[in-house]
Amino acid sequence: MKNFYIVYNPDKDEDNRITSELTAYIESQNGACKAMDCYSFSACDKQHVTDELESFDCILVLGGDGTLLNVASSASHVEIPLFGINLGTVGFLTEGEITNWQTIIDRLLADDYSMQDRMMIRGTVRTGDGKECRKRALNDIVISRAGFSRLIGLDVYVNGSFLNAYEGDGIIISTPTGSTGYNLSAGGPIVDPMARLMIITPVCPHSLTSKSIVLPSDAKVSIEIAKKRKTQDTEAIVSFDGGNDFELAAGDVLDICVSQRTTQLVKASDVNFYEILRNKLGGK
């Protein structure tokens, strides 16, 4: 790799110091790069993103997991790998750290790396008036309560068969990559990120028996928003990787399946997932 597109989080890189150092180092090693802040990058339309990335080998993401997810979403239609350098806190997706970025760049420039294809899921929102909206997610798709709503009702179907009627704060449909995110915080299982499956985890369910459910990668999940109160039109909000929120009303349906597209993450260190997991979760 010689050509790098850098997307940085200006909230985490004060005065663009790290971005400037990274850019200068790449150019000193006969590489080429261009930088853009993550907010401007996410505001670009698909064609602009395609044009911007056309001559680059890799996107270097400077920030935390949230920044990388945002970039992955904006560039999901372009076949280009991503590598994250963690400027945030936990950072399961961002393999590089601020303390070792020079070593990482040296390995990338020397083509000393491997690729991981991470599974994505696709959600299609179908509203009562016949409108459809489709988005992909690398981490998760989450339905949560809207505004002052106390509980939302969700009727969940798998492959056309009724699974359960959930009441609570919402529900998470997670990929293996997203299993260490919101899914983990909600009590869901941790899954090896190279697995191919989906996890359904209820959020604060109004039940003592509601648990996470692991589904195979060929499963088709449908979630219908149930009516809870006569005086409230909007019952819930659906978000894809923590953004792209859409309001849902009673009767609206969210269909979820595994996407044919994947996200390519560059692996340029000798640390495996289980070492990262042990270090991030405070193991010995």
Descriptors for this entry?
single chain, 284 residues, six-stranded antiparallel beta sheet, 7 helices
Would you give an account of this structure?
- This protein has 284 residues and is α+β, with helices and mostly antiparallel strands.
- 20% of the residues lie in helices and 41% in strands.
- The protein is built from 7 helices and 17 strands.
- The chain has helices spanning 17-28, 38-43, 46-53, 65-74, 101-109, 182-185, 273-280, and strands spanning 3-8, 32-37, 58-63, 82-86, 96-97, 114-126, 132-137, 140-145, 152-158, 161-168, 170-174, 197-203, 213-216, 221-226, 234-240, 243-249, 253-267.
- A 6-stranded antiparallel sheet has the order 7-6-17-14-9-10, with helices on one face. A 6-stranded antiparallel sheet has the order 13-12-11-8-15-16, with no helix packed on it.
- Helix 1 links the parallel strand 1 (3-8) and strand 2.
- It is elongated.
- The mean pLDDT is 89.
Please sum up the structure shown.
This protein has 284 residues and is an alpha+beta fold.
Total beta strand runs: 17
Query: What structural class should be given to the helix and strand makeup?
Result: alpha+beta
Distance between the termini: 35 Å
How many DSSP helices? 7
Run of helices and strands: EHEHHEHEEHEEEEEEHEEEEEEH
Approximate strand percentage: 35-45%
Identify the overall geometry.
Answer: elongated
